[in-house]
Structures are given as C-alpha cells and as structure tokens.
C-alpha cells in the first residue's frame, strides 16, 4: 500500500501518543508525511517520546487529561493557533486495571468509565465542534478493545469500550453528510507498554489464547489505524476493525 501522499502535511492528533500503541501510530503518520501532536498526562513520558519521534517529522506535545474538558479545549486552541485545522483525530488514550466486578470500588468503576467513554466523547465532541464540522471534513479513529464476547475480569472497560463502539456508529451517521468519517480499531492482546502494567501471572502464556499463537505488535494496530484514516477506506464509516489474531472468535478473552 502506498500511503505516502495520503498524509502529506495532514494534521494528526494522537491522544496517549507518548507510549505503546499511540507512539507507533504517531510514528507511522510521521513517516508518511503527517504533522503530529501527541498528548498525555505525563510530561516526562511525552518529552522522551518527542526525542525519539522528531527525526521522523514535525511532532509536538501537549499535556491533556482526556477527562478534563478545559484541558481538551486548551488543546484544541493550541492546534487551531499552530495549524489552523485538524485532519485526523486518533482517540487512543485510555486504559484500565483487571478486577472482578464484585471487587470494583465506586471510584474504580467511575475512573475507568471516565477514562475510556467520557474522555473519548469529550475529545471527539470538542474536535468536531472546533474543526471538523466547520471544515466539513474530518477523520476519527477510536481505539477500543476486544469486547466481542464481553470482557470478563475487566467489565468496567468492556462497558466503556462497548459505549465507544456504539458512539462510533451513531456519530458516523450524525456526521456523514458533514464529510466526517469515524471508525474504531479493537486491538486484541498487543505486546506494548500497556501490557507491562498487568500482573505476570495474567500475561504469562497468554499468546496461547490467540489463534495465530502470538501477540499483536503496536505496529499491527497502527497499520489498521492508517488504513482507516486513508483514502483506501473512503467508503468505510461506523465500522470496528478487530486486530486480534482471530481471538474474538475463539477461546478466552482475558481471564482472572
Ligand atoms: C489483555 C489486555 C487487554 C488490554 C490491555 C490494555 O488496555 S493495556 C493499557 C494499559 N494502560 C493503562 O491502563 C493506562 C491508563 N490507566 C490508568 O490511568 C488507570 O488504570 C485508571 C484508568 C484507573 C485511571 O487512573 P487514575 O490515576 O486516574 O486513578 P486513581 O489511581 O485515582 O484510581 C481511581 C480508582 O481506581 C482504583 N484502581 C486503580 N488501579 C487499580 C487496581 N490495579 N486494582 C484495583 N483498583 C484500582 C483506585 O483504587 C481508585 O479507587 P478507590 O481506591 O479510590 O476506590
Ligand atoms: N496493549 C493491549 O493489549 C491493548 C490496549 N488497548 C488500548 O489501547 C490504548 C493504548 O494502550 P497501550 O499503548 O497498550 O498502553 P499504554 O498504557 O502505553 O498507553 C496508554 C496511553 O494513554 C495515555 N492515557 C491514559 N489515560 C489518559 C488520560 N486520562 N488522559 C490522557 N492520556 C491518557 C497514557 O499517557 P499518560 O500516562 O501520559 O497519561 C498512555 O500514553 C489504550 O486505550 C488501551 O487500553 C486495548 C486493547 C488491548
């Protein structure tokens, strides 16, 4: 696939671009000629990422917690001031922790819903209102998770990601006539910094639960995102693309 011209000078925002999957997405866009803004909560992480990414192209960072609407508006203002437009939004920031539903505290549940469902909505609405609806053009890709058979052991994130899956469909239709496309990518188990946060006993041998007998790479997810944001996918909207080595169709998802 020759993507080079597709993203030349496109302005791309990758939330959570300081590590793991988001870092790979940012790198792939830069390599293909885009100008990229990465965001996260941890400035040191973002600075280290910028050091590694800057040889690939024009990249800057902004601190932005996706749960904080004021910070999101400041991020939109920064992009407006710097570039005057936004072409692609990748809602990658998110995450959770493993816990049985019976053990979840109110705050634990709320934090994960806020992080993955509310944060994604706030970011999407703000970028649509600031850029996409006025431009009559925009491309949004939401990173969710493998929720195909529910998410036992992480019901909070399962519920939040299912919400984003459905939001993707609703907004694809609400905004279709305004030139805005919105799709989602559902990663299975990906060898990334995110996975390092999980207890060893949960992750050990986990590749055996994947039909293709290996974990996905962060680039596997990035390639799907670039495809959905590219003209190759111009007739695709409201879709969720699973990047999971077939795991949704077979065996365990993630058991405690
Ligand atoms: C197979 C793999 C598939 C998926 C992989 C990935 O997604 S990889 C991507 C992986 N990457 C990421 O996940 C990155 C992003 N993730 C995060 O930042 C956090 O997981 C977050 C979403 C909880 C937000 O954090 P925050 O700093 O804003 O929140 P906070 O610290 O203030 O806590 C709020 C509440 O949650 C509770 N709690 C927290 N941890 C645990 C735990 N282990 N256990 C139990 N509970 C826990 C905490 O106790 C508190 O409740 P309390 O005590 O007041 O009743
Ligand atoms: N790895 C995997 O197997 C899978 C991952 N996913 C999802 O893919 C995405 C990327 O995960 P991965 O790269 O593996 O993990 P990481 O933990 O490396 O990445 C998560 C990124 O999101 C940022 N982030 C998290 N919460 C917030 C917030 N409230 N505001 C702003 N930024 C935030 C983090 O930056 P900072 O700490 O600076 O805030 C971090 O850069 C996540 O949504 C994850 O849940 C889904 C399925 C499987």
Automatic annotation (TrEMBL):
Summary of subunit composition and partner proteins: Interacts with PEX5, probably required to target it into peroxisomes.
One GO biological process term: fatty acid biosynthetic process
Role, per record: Participates in chain elongation of fatty acids. Catalyzes the reduction of trans-2-enoyl-CoAs of varying chain lengths from 6:1 to 16:1, having maximum activity with 10:1 CoA. Has no 2,4-dienoyl-CoA reductase activity.
Protein name, per record: Peroxisomal trans-2-enoyl-CoA reductase
Enzyme Commission designation: 1.3.1.38
GO molecular function ontology, one term from the record: trans-2-enoyl-CoA reductase (NADPH) activity
Subcellular location(s) per record: Peroxisome
Superkingdom in the source lineage: Bacteria
Listed pathway(s): Lipid metabolism
Species name: Faecalibacter rhinopitheci
Keyword tags: Fatty acid biosynthesis, Fatty acid metabolism, Lipid biosynthesis, Lipid metabolism, NADP, Oxidoreductase, Peroxisome, Phosphoprotein
EC category name: oxidoreductase
Catalytic activity: (2E)-octenoyl-CoA + NADPH + H(+) = octanoyl-CoA + NADP(+); (2E)-decenoyl-CoA + NADPH + H(+) = decanoyl-CoA + NADP(+); a (2E)-enoyl-CoA + NADPH + H(+) = a 2,3-saturated acyl-CoA + NADP(+); (2E)-tetradecenoyl-CoA + NADPH + H(+) = tetradecanoyl-CoA + NADP(+)
InterPro entries for the chain: NAD(P)-bd_dom_sf, Peroxisomal_t2-enoyl-CoA_red, SDR_fam
A Pfam family of this chain: adh_short_C2
Family: Belongs to the short-chain dehydrogenases/reductases (SDR) family.
